[in-house]
């Protein structure tokens, strides 16, 4: 299992604490220091069952331009490219489970769902 985190994020720290309390085996990826590639973002999106705009933090300064972009298949690559170029825009934490699925671990229930897999 891998968890993409920003150490400054309270939701990320909570997810790590829960994983530690449950003695889960995981690796940490500080995705701001080690940004995912476009291919990795595509893979995570497939595992999440979401579109790039679904995992975009639109409140970030770097997202101002994106909020006017169409959310449709024709613009999907554009969104993915923006996430790869500005990883701060990626919702966090993202946990990829060993069984192939992934969750955005912003709630305790979401984090626990990967522990049950």
Automatic annotation (TrEMBL):
- UniProt enzyme class: oxidoreductase
**Protein family:** Belongs to the ArsC family.
Oxidoreductase in keyword set: yes
List its EC numbers. Answer: 1.20.4.1
Q: What GO MF terms are annotated? A: arsenate reductase (glutaredoxin) activity
Membrane-crossing ranges are none
Q: SUPFAM superfamilies attached here? A: Thioredoxin-like
> What PROSITE patterns does the entry give?
ARSC (PS51353)
Please provide the record's keywords in A-Z order.
Oxidoreductase
Q: Which InterPro entries match?
A: Arsenate_reductase, Arsenate_reductase-like, Thioredoxin-like_sf
**Name under which the protein is recorded:** Arsenate reductase
């Amino acid at each position: 299992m891998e968890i993409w985190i920003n150490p400054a994020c309270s939701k990320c720290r909570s997810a790590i604490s829960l994983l530690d309390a449950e003695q889960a085996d995981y690796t940490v990826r500080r995705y701001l220091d080690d940004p995912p590639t476009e291919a990795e973002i595509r893979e995570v999106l497939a595992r999440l069952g979401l579109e790039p705009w679904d995992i975009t933090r639109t409140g970030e300064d770097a997202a101002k331009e994106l909020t006017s972009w169409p959310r449709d298949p024709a613009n999907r690559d554009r969104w993915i490219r923006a996430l790869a170029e500005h990883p701060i825009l990626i919702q966090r934490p993202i946990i990829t489970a060993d069984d192939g699925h992934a969750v955005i671990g912003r709630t305790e229930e979401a984090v626990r769902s990967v522990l049950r897999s």
